[in-house]
Amino acid sequence: MTVMNSFLDIHKTDPEALRGMIANARAMKDARGGRPKGEPDDEQPLKGRMVALIFEKPSTRTRISFDVGVRQMGGQTMVLSGADMQLGHGETIADTARVLSRYVDLIMIRTFEEQTLLEMADYADVPVINGLTNRTHPCQIMADVMTYEEHRGPIAGKKVVWSGDGNNVFASFAHAAGQFGFDLTFTGPETLDPEKAWLEFAASKGHPVTIDRNPERAVDGADLVVTDTWVSMHDPQSARERRHNQLRPYQVNDHLMGLAKPDALFMHCLPAHRDDEATSSVMDGPHSVIFDEAENRLHAQKAVMRWCLGV
Ligand code: CP
Ligand code: NVA
Question: What share of the chain is helix, strand, coil (3-state, %, to 5)?
């Protein structure tokens, strides 16, 4: 039987499947045992498979971790810029999806509008992976859950505090709170609150997101403190100054981290604007696991791709 699972979002994926992917990612990471990055895995589940990686926005981690991950598993990749494809010049997403499906076995796309991703998945005959949209970033949070658990054990029941913009990365944390069963607090200005739908999802799973405008109170007892850029790729540059002014009180600095649990972890999906949303002292300090997160994008996405293809 041909398996065809698209990985569109954490809230759209069965919790058991999500758990399975984290376990598989851990197992594959362990099995590599730190060998050189270009050396293939013992198992070659993507042998003979071709994967298209489409980017309509810039990327360092997503682009390289998917590319390396496919190669380690024996597959081949094509890294494509949306602007260089006919997609960027008026060809419909539906036609692009149907054409790509004749050439490749799996599509990963980073795009602006969620609708582009959904249409790609609707019309493609091969699985589609969400590599970030304006609304969500599920692959990142799979890596983040894996990273938390590597350092501190099960994330279920832990207190995770997001300080800053209620953006696409927060959205996937809210989905993960519902699916993995942790307590999520959002602290940020009301003007940059997360979408209600994301909060409703977590609440519907019995893990309502707490909203606290006071960052110092919010981080009290936190097991994990997370932030992200104050201006995302889809935000207009004209909003930069206003956002900075609104978000400055939510900067993650030594004072704020000091109010979390003594063994709290600090995460940031990167790229960061050092000394804006988080100080270098926190990013490079004892709580920080930001580069483990970046590495785990590779392992987590390998597991996501295997699940998509059932291999
Ligand atoms: N965190 C993340 O997705 O990074 P890139 O934008 O570099 O892919
Ligand atoms: N919120 C950021 C995440 C980048 C990985 C953005 O969308 O630009």
Answer: 45, 15, 40
